[in-house]
């Protein structure tokens, strides 16, 4: 055996070598690749050539069953009947799979051990240092896995697809390597804590507080890495003929803690605002929390499934329970005023030019939820029908709507994000004037 740098190159195993002999030949090479993913295996410097390494895997995958099955199976083949011969052929094919499986499990354990070693080095890191180390080490690990998969490409092409029909824990080499990262690297560092999600949430929360120290690029890169780790478990569903997406790592490490933190924050602040029995303050608090949690800069970091869940969660916590109260706070004073129609037109005039901020907040929040305008529709119709609308007032309202793009959009529907629009359409106005 000859030594070259940190790698020891042994003699290439022959076709009679068992799994231990083949793995003893391959393991120093895989170790070197994992430690030097950007390096090159140079046969002139004492390394085995790529073809020699590939041949070692090929020979064992094809001929290894002879060694592992032993002579007993061969003797039975000789003396067996034609039917038994067919059964034994299946037996040998099974041993062919078993031979490759032994090598596959050796490699799987080797990659898992390497990921654990990396985790031990990074165990004490926190915040951006931890996220940077995770991204850097994972990129190196992925690059090394791709090089190793080239050596085991025969197993990837021939054995993995066949064996995966029996064992769903078998993946191609690159996917198998990525599947080791979550339990061996992330879980080893986190133990019973949530240091990864805490580090990401801390960077998101710091946004707007200290623009210079904000590292949202790191958060985006970490989220992308979690999505890649999740994608390693995706599979093709034979029944639906579709590739089933997987988000398990992304959900566990980031999405669930993120949504939980947003829910707790919103629920706490909206509860405090509700206790004050001030509907205007409650409306402003809800609108502010929606703006903060759905900031475009933060939304850009998230996967679309998380954005949908966040919007749904905000609507359930901040809008739906309070929208009737908000509409009552707007319409009740109009009904009790001396000139209700004038008050209503004044309100719409201020809304048309963007002066009534609270009414604008209410309109935006009500448009986020199903039937957000229902209570206002009923109240407004009752309000208008119970009041004689003079033709001059009617014309004033029609002119106001026709001259304001905001009111046309509001009265004619067209609320953004596909939410159910208001029933306050211009076509209803003549009906009101006739009452």
Could you characterize the architecture of this molecule?
The strands form 2 sheets. The protein has a two-stranded antiparallel ribbon with strand order 1-2. Strands 3-4 form a two-stranded antiparallel sheet. It has 3 domains: 182 residues, 5 helical Cullin repeat like; 128 residues; 112 residues, no CATH class. The protein is mainly alpha-helical and 435 residues long. The N terminus and C terminus are likely disordered. The longest helix has 41 residues. It contains 20 helices and 4 strands. Strand 1 and strand 2 form a beta hairpin.
Can you give me a brief rundown of this structure?
This protein is mostly helical. The chain is 71% helix and 3% strand. The protein is built from 20 helices and 4 strands.
């Amino acid at each position: 055996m000859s030594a070259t740098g940190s790698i020891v190159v042994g003699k290439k195993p022959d076709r009679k070598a068992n799994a231990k002999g083949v793995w003893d030949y391959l393991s120093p090479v895989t170790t070197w690749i994992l430690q030097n993913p950007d390096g090159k295996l140079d046969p002139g410097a004492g390394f085995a050539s790529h073809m020699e390494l590939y041949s070692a895997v090929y020979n064992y995958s094809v001929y290894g069953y002879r060694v592992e099955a032993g002579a007993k199976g061969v003797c039975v083949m000789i003396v067996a009947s034609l039917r038994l011969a067919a059964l034994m052929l299946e037996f040998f094919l099974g041993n062919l799979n078993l031979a490759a499986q032994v090598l596959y499990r050796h490699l799987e354990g080797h990659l898992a051990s390497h990921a654990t070693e990396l985790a031990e080095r990074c165990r004490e890191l926190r915040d951006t240092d931890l996220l940077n180390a995770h991204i850097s080490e994972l990129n190196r690990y992925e690059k090394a896995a791709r090089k190793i998969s080239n050596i085991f490409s025969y197993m990837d092409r021939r054995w993995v697809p066949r064996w995966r029909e029996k064992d769903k824990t078998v993946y191609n080499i690159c996917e198998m390597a990525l599947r080791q990262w979550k339990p061996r690297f992330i879980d080893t560092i986190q133990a019973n804590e949530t240091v990864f999600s805490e580090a990401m949430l801390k960077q998101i929360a710091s946004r707007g507080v200290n623009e210079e120290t904000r590292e949202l690029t790191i958060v985006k890169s970490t989220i992308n890495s979690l999505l890649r780790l999740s994608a390693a478990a995706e599979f093709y569903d034979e029944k639906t003929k579709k590739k089933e997406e997987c988000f398990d790592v992304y959900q566990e490490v980031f999405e669930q803690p993120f949504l939980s933190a947003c829910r707790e924050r919103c629920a706490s602040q909206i509860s405090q605002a509700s206790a004050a029995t001030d509907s205007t303050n409650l409306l402003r608090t809800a609108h502010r929390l929606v703006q903060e949690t759905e900031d475009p800069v933060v939304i850009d970091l998230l996967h679309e499934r998380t954005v949908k869940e966040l919007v749904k969660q905000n609507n359930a916590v901040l809008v739906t329970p309070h929208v009737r109260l908000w509409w009552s706070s707007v319409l009740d004073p109009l009904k009790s005023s001396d000139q209700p129609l004038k008050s209503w037109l004044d309100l719409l005039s201020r809304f048309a030019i963007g002066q009534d901020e609270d009414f604008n907040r209410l309109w935006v929040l009500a448009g986020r939820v199903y039937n957000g305008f229902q209570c206002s529709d009923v109240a407004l119709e009752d309000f208008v029908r119970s009041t004689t609308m003079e033709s001059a007032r009617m014309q004033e309202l029609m002119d106001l709507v026709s001259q304001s793009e905001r009111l046309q959009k509001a009265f004619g529907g067209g609320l953004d994000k596909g939410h159910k629009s208001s029933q306050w359409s211009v076509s209803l106005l003549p009906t009101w004037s006739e009452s």
